[in-house]
Design goal:
The chain has ten helices and nine strands. The chain has 268 residues and is an alpha/beta fold. Strands 1-2-3-4-6-9 form a six-stranded mixed beta sheet, sandwiched between helices. Helix 2 (81-97) links the parallel strand 3 (56-60) and strand 4 (103-107).
Length: 268
């Protein structure tokens, strides 16, 4: 463990080739105050800069994943919330979506508001059976942020996305899986073991290709433009060392040994 849990809003554990990141304000259900947002962003940026990190798991300490923004941390009516989003929340979400390694959310307990959209912004979302997702924004007169208006229609369709945002009703983990909002609902006691298994598996795969796949799927362009994007991203993938290794392993009839090195990456 690189940071001790006491007093740290974010705890990071390096597990060989992947990082386990915990939101660590269990007494507040891991609510996101400005210090936690800044610490999480710094953690993601450090992972992005670490050539030895090839996957990341995000979870919460205690009984919940994240209850959203900490409304007791100086958030008052009359503030310019757009400014706060521009300087704090949006950079965090851009860091998550732009992370050059695959991400897994292990949702334990409640994921509300910004916490729900933080989880849904990961590449693969696992949830314990007691977990729930709530777009709680309308309860206090706000709209979904942290990418919620982008993610929800793409995950569950426009009709469900609108209802979830307007009604702020919780969606249990099993329902979230049935709707395609998340990858899997698991027994609570099996959640972290599966997250760790997936992280270890992803960390052995061709990292650049995985991230380029995320980029292509997020684009949502008209077909002709999407085909052009596939061409450009495939060009990048074709110059990676992992592609060369994959072809060599196929020809040699052996398992590939991917390194995760990026095209032109001199760190690996």
């Amino acid at each position: 463990m690189d940071q001790q849990a006491g007093g740290q809003p974010i705890v990071v554990e390096r597990r060989g080739t992947w990082h386990l990141v915990r939101l660590n304000r269990p007494e507040k259900m891991n609510a996101l105050d400005p210090a936690t947002v800044a610490a999480l962003r710094a953690t993601l940026e450090a992972a992005a800069a670490d050539a030895g990190c090839r996957a990341l798991v995000l979870t919460g300490s205690g009984r919940g994943f994240c209850s959203g923004a900490d409304l007791s941390a100086g958030l008052e009516p009359g503030q310019d919330l757009g400014s706060a989003i521009e300087t704090s929340w949006n950079p965090l979400i851009r860091a998550l979506h732009g992370l050059p390694v695959p991400t897994i959310a292990a949702v334990n307990g409640i994921a509300a508001g910004a916490g729900a959209n933080l989880a849904l912004g990961c590449d693969i979302v696992l949830a314990g059976s007691s977990a729930s997702f709530i777009q709680a924004f309308s309860r206090i007169g706000l709209i979904p942020d942290c990418g919620g208006t982008y993610l929800l229609p793409r995950l569950v369709g426009a009709a469900r996305a609108r209802a979830l945002a307007l009604l702020a009703e919780p969606v249990g983990a099993a329902q979230a899986e049935a709707w395609g909002m998340i990858w899997k609902c698991l027994p609570d006691e099996a959640l972290m073991a599966e997250a760790e298994r997936l992280a270890s598996s992803l960390a052995e795969r061709p990292t650049e290709a995985l991230v380029l796949t995320r980029q292509a799927m997020a684009a949502g362009l008209p077909l002709d433009a999407q085909l052009d994007l596939e061409r450009d991203l495939q060009r990048r993938a074709g110059f990676t060392a992992d592609f060369a290794e994959g072809v060599a392993a196929f020809r040699d009839k052996r398992p590939p040994r991917f390194t995760g090195a990026r095209a032109g990456d001199r760190r690996a």
